[in-house]
Design a protein that fits this description.
mainly alpha
Length: 376
């Protein structure tokens, strides 16, 4: 998204917005993240400066047309021009989505109930409803809603976003008759989304990843490997135009191997990225993950140390130290691994976002308790 924002022609919005980018990993941003419930990156908000009301909110990446529609939507709601009751319900859903997705579901359904014929935000609201169902872990209803609505949508970014959410809901639970039935409906739509030029990189990656997960869950490793090969081939054909794109490609490579695959396969690309981005701790982190997965413990520890030297925030520091602890434990250096986990816990306690902080603190604490039991 940074690349899109850096190169997009948004001159028509000059003077209409105050643009603010906040890092997810800086303590000074904790009040904002807490107040507005930003749980993932990227998340976009349009906020009314008069009362700090969220007038539009959307998680995940967007294409340029979707971004301009998002800005126009937020702007019109601030001005309250040409508003109908369905618009107000959609705005309410957006304001609730990050922190209270179950309540957002009610608002989005009310918006669809109130929507007049030809309402321009109908498909957007359907997609947001599916997102809210996913965020509230209502897997079956999410998948059923996604398959029913996506088949009728225009084939654009909103279509792909709806299909992706539905696919995630199918693979977020163990195989069941309902999940198999919805996978049969969503899979052709997912493959169709892969043929569309409007399907953004993140959505393409999510489609391949969910197809792999679905195959593995159904004990079809042959199909999972084929999807993985197709995904990696697509990634390897891309020549990154920036460090942001290089990082995104590396994340996708790692996610691919984490589902099914040989980490040795992507180590050369990750080494190239670390050399190309000497100040980027994420490049070292991704490399450390795969060196550890490949049982190259010394190389994983060295990559962690390089990443830690690149001044990551508390989230990145906690993550690197946990990888380092795993590699140290694999070498039999249990006391050094415990000290790395203790340092990771201190870093995790400073993570700005409450959800990420609580999750990291819990996971690291559990690991420390396990090491103490082993010691005793």
């Amino acid at each position: 998204m940074r690349d899109l924002l850096a190169h997009a022609d948004l001159a028509g919005y000059a003077g209409q917005f105050v643009w603010l980018e906040l890092s997810y990993d800086e303590a000074t941003n904790r009040p904002f993240l807490t107040k507005f419930g930003a749980q993932a990156t990227p998340t976009f908000f349009v906020i009314d400066p008069q009362d700090e009301r969220v007038t539009a909110m959307q998680p995940g990446v967007m294409s340029l047309p979707e971004l301009t529609q998002f800005l126009d939507r937020g702007k019109s709601r601030v001005a309250e021009k040409n508003q109908v009751p369905a618009d107000a319900a959609l705005t309410q859903g957006d304001a609730l989505l990050a922190e209270k997705p179950a309540e957002a579901i009610k608002a989005y359904r009310e918006a669809l109930r109130l929507a007049p014929a030809g309402w321009p935000h109908h498909e957007l609201t359907e997609a947001s409803l599916v997102q809210a169902l996913q965020d509230s872990n209502q897997w079956q209803e999410c998948a059923e809603t996604a398959s029913a609505q996506a088949v009728q949508m225009k084939r654009d970014v909103i279509f792909a976003r709806t299909v992706v959410a539905g696919m995630w809901c199918v693979v977020s639970t163990d195989p069941a008759p309902w999940a198999d039935a919805q996978l049969a409906k969503l899979k052709p739509l997912a493959l169709e989304a892969l043929t569309l030029s409007t399907t953004v990189r993140d959505h393409r990656d999510a489609i391949y990843r969910t197809l792999m997960y679905a195959s593995v869950a159904r004990h079809d490793e042959t199909s999972a490997a084929q999807w993985g090969d197709r995904w990696l081939a697509e990634l390897e054909a891309i020549k990154p135009a920036s460090d942001e794109e290089r990082s995104a490609l590396d994340i996708a490579r790692v996610e691919n191997i984490q589902v099914l695959g040989n980490p040795e396969r992507i180590l050369p690309a990750l080494l190239d990225s670390e050399r190309a981005m000497p100040n980027n701790y994420i490049a070292s982190l991704r490399l450390a993950q795969m060196e550890s997965a490949a049982k190259h413990s010394d190389e994983a520890i060295a990559a962690c140390d390089r990443g830690l030297a690149r001044a990551p925030g508390p989230n990145g520091r906690a993550w690197l130290l946990q990888i380092k602890a795993t590699a140290l434990a694999a070498k039999g250096q249990k006391e050094q691994a415990r000290r790395a986990l203790e340092e990771a816990l201190r870093a995790a306690q400073a993570i700005p976002n409450k959800m990420a902080r609580d999750m990291n603190v819990k996971n690291i604490s559990n690991r420390l308790q396990a090491t103490q039991k082993e010691k005793n």
